[in-house]
Amino acid sequence: MLKGKGLNLKWSDIKMAELDLTKLISHFAQSNKAEGKSPKTVSWYTEMLLDFVRFLRSRSRGAVMAEFNAVTVREFIVCEQERGMSPYTVQGKVRALKAFASWLLTEGYSTDNLLANVKLPKVPIKIVETLTPEEIDQLIATQNPLTALGCRDIAILLTLLDTGLRLGELSGLRLENAHIEEGYLKIMGKGSKERIVPIGALGQKVLWRYLFHFRPQPAAELDDYLFLTLDGRHLSSNAIKLILDRWGKRAGVPRLHAHLCRHTYATNFLTHKCGDVFRLKLILGHSTLEMVNRYVHFASAQDMMRGHVSSPLDHMDIKRLKGCKIDRMLKGISN
Question: For residues 59 and 8, which has the higher predicted lDDT (pLDDT)?
Answer without folding.
Answer: 59
